Automatic annotation (TrEMBL), chains A, B:
It comes from Mumia xiangluensis. InterPro entries: Tscrpt_reg_PadR_N, WH-like_DNA-bd_sf, WH_DNA-bd_sf. It holds the Pfam family PadR. Transmembrane segments: none annotated. This is PadR family transcriptional regulator. PANTHER family: TRANSCRIPTION REGULATOR, PADR-LIKE FAMILY (PTHR43252:SF2), TRANSCRIPTIONAL REGULATOR YQJI (PTHR43252). It comes from the Bacteria.
Amino acid sequence: MSSPLTPLALAAIALLVERPMHPYEMYQLLLERRDGHVMKVRAGSLYHAIERLDRDGLVTAVGTDRAGNRPERTTYALTDAGRSALHASVTEMLRTPVNEFPRFAVALNEAHNLSLEEAVVLFEQRRTALDAEISELTTIIESARGRAVDEAYWFVADYRRTVLAAERDWLDRIIDRLRTKDLTWPHPA
Amino acid sequence: MSSPLTPLALAAIALLVERPMHPYEMYQLLLERRDGHVMKVRAGSLYHAIERLDRDGLVTAVGTDRAGNRPERTTYALTDAGRSALHASVTEMLRTPVNEFPRFAVALNEAHNLSLEEAVVLFEQRRTALDAEISELTTIIESARGRAVDEAYWFVADYRRTVLAAERDWLDRIIDRLRTKDLTWPHPA
DNA sequence: TACGGATTATTCCAGCCGGAATATATCGCA
DNA sequence: TGCGATATATTCCGGCTGGAATAATCCGTA
């Protein structure tokens, strides 16, 4: 019926599987659980996402409460349609790879606008930055292992690390081949 | 001054390095050169992008011509500011890795909402689809090699293939571990 | 030569995102 | 007890994307 759920919409629905809550509570939980590593978590976007879910009948307002004179908080609950949408979305997103056009590929495609020397330096800098990210992910993974968390809750970190490591290794090969002039480069700009 | 160039804006500027042209001509060239493999090429977005580049002084209208009674076509040329912006953007995009939050990672993060059996099937289907994409990329690479094109013009395909292969290998390991129950899965929904 | 379909070329609109603005309440501390 | 800083909670607005609408011309063909 509707287009596939946006990441934030999916996350919101997944939280409502646990229990009804209001948007700001979801926002806090997403930050606490470090979902920011996997998607962009912005309060503004979250409110918009929930508004759409409500409009489309995937969640429903179950009441408002008010603490002090703060704005009313609307509590939302999951509907059956929402539960199906979660299942359908996750299924589809796992099953089908889609090219999401990473910016790095765009840059590679235009890299010939730079000189070979410039490119080598930039590739080296990227390589270093990737190593740092990979280390961070390793720390996260070790910590989760230590706390004996079910692997299904953190294997996304292992996935990310694997892919980043592959990019780093590719960069290493390219840098080496650029240095030895094994890889031909067009006349610099 | 302005925020980093969008992929389409970058591509437009890169085309104007060759010679001045009008938007539709850029659009055709982008399709011809298969830039659609690296970014989303939509005519509507391209016109918007060029409008912004013009507003920001990175390109400038150098005249209009008219063939028959068709709408006037405005030809654009690159400015010095545009040339610098191209260089700066490519430099920055090559140098600094940014997490772009791939949808697959989002789905992995919510995969525990499915049963282990469902997940295995979906992972297998994804694995198969990835193999097909990898083959396609290999064909493209072989063809470019055969035509002795400078490698800098197609190494983005090699990059994509490398990353996809890493994802496939990761999936293979996960599928195997799920089958042998080596990887623990939370109580299914 | 009349017609339909593809090509050429651009504009428009609705949707999503995200930074900023807004407004109140609470807490630490001097 | 008064003050600023931070947390709570939501709304707003501007920007980018992309599908659809629009419109004229060209081309093949019957």
